[in-house]
Amino acid sequence: MPFHLGNGHSEEPREEIVVTGVGLITSIGAGKEEFWRNLMAGRSGIGPVTAFSTENFPVHRGGEVKDFNAECYIRRLPPGTAGRTSQLAIAASKLALDDAKLSFTESDLEESGVVVGTTSGEPGVIERFDDLYVEGNINRLGPEFISKYPCNLLAAHVAGELQLGGEVLTIPTACAAGNYAVAHAADLLQLRRAKIMLAGGSDSFSRITYTGFARLGAISADLCRPFDRNRKGMIPGEGAAMLVLERRSDAIARGARIYAAIAGYGLSCDAFHMTSASPEGDGAVRAMEMALRTSGILPEQVDYISAHGTGTATNDRLETVAIKRIFKDHAYDVPVSSIKSMLGHAMGAASAIESVACVLAITEGRMPATANLETADPECDLDYVANTPRDRELKVVMNNAYAFGGNNSCLIFRSCEA
């Protein structure tokens, strides 16, 4: 099935864009094998926060990446040049390129680019600024504030490490940013403005982010329970995921393994409230409608939905409402699950990690479960693949992601045999 530009314009069918490599750094493991094995085993990456003290908060848990060593991945950039978020993005990019078995020629480098989605960029740098300011030691800051902090540096650091000469872009659309990045990269490939694109998202664990969600009362004190009647909130996390995208003809020509194709995407904005979605899920509905329309896929053809599924009372209910509005009677037949129940919410990296989970689900024929789902909620009454992964042939998979500021995104992946 040909892919069309995601903006809904009437265009001639363009060449299919496919995923040929995936790389991740997450709270449940690095690399696709460890990540997938732990995801299928229902292992949790959530535990007591170690990055900073939470003694002044009523909550103390997060989904941190443990034992990450940037020196294992960064070879060209001078030591200390890149902040943790950039380091995670570089690591995920290198794992994705290794997985794709890509060796760049000089011309490939000139035609290859990177798009990184994020929520906070490099929060650790501004947190150090804040600490020094409060201590009265701002003179100790040094030039690293300017060289590390600006959010555009996430993609620039990846490009610098890999020597990529194509378009380099950071998209800061918060928790939907990973999907935005993949969508934009697909457009660049279709328009033949690039030959190979790395796309995904990265965010590091942040005291600023944790404080904000804690003050909103949005963090669960124990478990993340998406769609459960007793859910108490999300749990902040961190990580990175990057996907290698190519035109299908180029992938076939080099003998690449193809995970899945990007069938279409939809982006929308609620323009309703800074932190709350439209009461009827209007923005989420528009994003899913556009994704289905641009892909030429009918709702009843969708085999699985990777939900945004944060575990907050409002998000889970509104996502359920939006799915019902789009899928109508079929909503009760399509399985839905949220892997944030195990990883925590990795912010701008979340939908990129979930995109990798989607293409692996297609490849492996298995759907990840929603962990910690014990008590049915009358308002969340769909099939949420509770607690145990499920085997099923998956030809069409939808990935939803929503963000503060009203940013909504939906990607649709399909099996290349579909």
Look at the helices and sheets and give the structural class.
alpha/beta
Helix and strand element order:
EEHEEHHEHHHEHEHEHEHEHEHHEEEE
> CATH topology of the largest domain, anyone?
Peroxisomal Thiolase, Chain A, domain 1
Provide the CATH top-level class of the largest domain: Alpha Beta
- Number of DSSP helical runs: 13
The major sheet is characterized as: 11 strands, mixed
Mean pLDDT: 93
Radius of gyration using CA atoms only: 20 Å
Question: What count of domains describes the coordinates?
Answer: 2
CATH superfamily of the largest domain: Thiolase/Chalcone synthase
Query: Architecture of the largest domain, CATH level 2?
Result: 3-Layer(aba) Sandwich
* Beta-strand share of residues: 15-25%
Uncertain stretches of 5 or more adjacent residues: 1-11
